[in-house]
Task: inverse folding
């Protein structure tokens, strides 16, 4: 099974996208829309202080009657961030996401964030891995 490090090496987007905790939710949503992502790291002075997702927006802005222009990211972000390391397997990450009901995992190495994985990244990698195994089996059977 593929590791997180291998998956990050194959990801097309290499740069991390982040916002500051004092940005408004509206500004963070603009960044997310521009980059076509469903979650974004919240960083302050190089440290991850939270993660902000579309789910946070739906549950803590829309359902609570707040405004995105008048609310800071700090006020609604998820501050208990769960990290994974580059040596962990894709299967371990999927199990963690399923167990914790989360859709994004920052990857931490040497006390710094080196990537952000989405459930879509993991599903795509799993499907690609299964297709490779099937192709190898077909090749073996035919020879």
Result:
């Amino acid at each position: 099974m593929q590791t997180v490090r291998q998956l990050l090496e194959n990801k097309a987007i290499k740069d991390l996208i982040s916002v500051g905790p004092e940005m408004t939710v509206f500004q963070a949503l603009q960044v997310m829309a521009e980059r076509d992502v469903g979650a974004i790291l919240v960083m302050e002075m190089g440290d991850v202080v939270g993660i902000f997702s579309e789910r946070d927006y739906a549950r803590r802005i829309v359902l609570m009657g707040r405004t995105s222009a008048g609310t800071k990211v700090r006020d609604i972000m998820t501050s208990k961030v769960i990290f994974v390391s580059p040596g962990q397997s894709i299967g371990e990450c999927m199990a963690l996401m399923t167990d914790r009901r989360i859709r994004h995992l920052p990857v931490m190495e040497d006390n710094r964030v080196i990537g952000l994985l989405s459930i879509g990244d993991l599903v795509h990698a799993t499907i690609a891995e299964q297709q490779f195994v099937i192709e190898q089996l077909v090749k073996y059977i035919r020879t």
